[in-house]
Write a sequence for this structure.
């Protein structure tokens, strides 16, 4: 399991993983996206220990991904809601889900599909595209180093 | 940390997380995508313990995400290469990276951007879309339960 912090790494993938927290955190975010907004609902869905869930929820609230809101039905139970920052993890969740549907689906088939609620249509595959909307083939994907602070990496400057 | 297996869960997100393995595994996949194909290169990039790295690499090979290939320069070191299954994790990696660029970027700015190698252009944001290519707004995303009983006709629904 995780043995050091990724937070000092520059890479945004590493920083996202560090910030989001753990596999459990992604499943908690999934549950809230699916409408399970209360501690007990998430606990029942994940079969997770109370103290683990409490600590993951605190981390997600501290990180600004979830926020605590009063219950929607006036009861005394607080609920969890996704912030904009949390909602914008949807492309990550959908990409994970679609990959799983294709490569490691449950023998009974996947239990749900993401749809556009306006049309009821299933989403197309989340895929890298150019600005004009054209899909990019996997073997045509590349990485370009970005100019950071010029003092940041003097060794590179000298080349 | 992970305290139970997600593999018996039906959800494809949970199944993907279980199958891929851990945060480290995603960073290993990122490294191989970026051209770090040898054990020593990945070890140096991640600062990961040798035994942890060896076990994650074995898991990724067993899972059919990475494959071992002879070195590209004829030396005796084996290299790791992504299978098609592994390459198709690119949308997940890019979605993680773009979220990180926006929400938790390194103070010096992100170190690289994903581009279309044909044009050199940065990719647009990986985003859920309908079949016609139109982006779906986050508040218009929905989930539809799928009928998992094969005797039922799922195609009754009109498009």
């Amino acid at each position: 399991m995780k043995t050091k912090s990724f937070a000092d790494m520059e890479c945004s993938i590493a920083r996202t993983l560090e910030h989001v927290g753990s596999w459990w955190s992604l499943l908690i975010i999934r549950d809230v996206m699916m409408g399970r907004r209360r501690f007990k609902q998430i606990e029942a869905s994940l079969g997770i220990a109370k103290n683990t869930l409490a600590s993951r929820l605190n981390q997600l609230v501290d990180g600004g991904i979830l926020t605590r809101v009063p219950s929607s039905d006036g009861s005394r139970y607080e609920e969890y809601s996704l912030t904009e920052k949390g909602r914008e993890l949807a492309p990550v969740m959908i990409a994970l889900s679609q990959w799983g549907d294709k490569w490691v689906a449950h023998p009974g088939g996947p239990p749900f599909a993401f749809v556009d609620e306006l049309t009821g249509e299933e989403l197309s595959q989340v895929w890298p595209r150019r600005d004009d909307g054209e899909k990019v083939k996997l073997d045509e994907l590349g990485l370009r180093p970005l100019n950071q602070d010029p003092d940041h990496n003097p060794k590179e400057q000298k080349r």
Summary: Chain A has seven helices and four strands. Chain A touches chain B through 87 residues (CB under 8 Å). The first strand of chain A starts at residue 66 and ends at 69. Residues 30 and 93 of chain A are 7 Å apart (CA to CA).
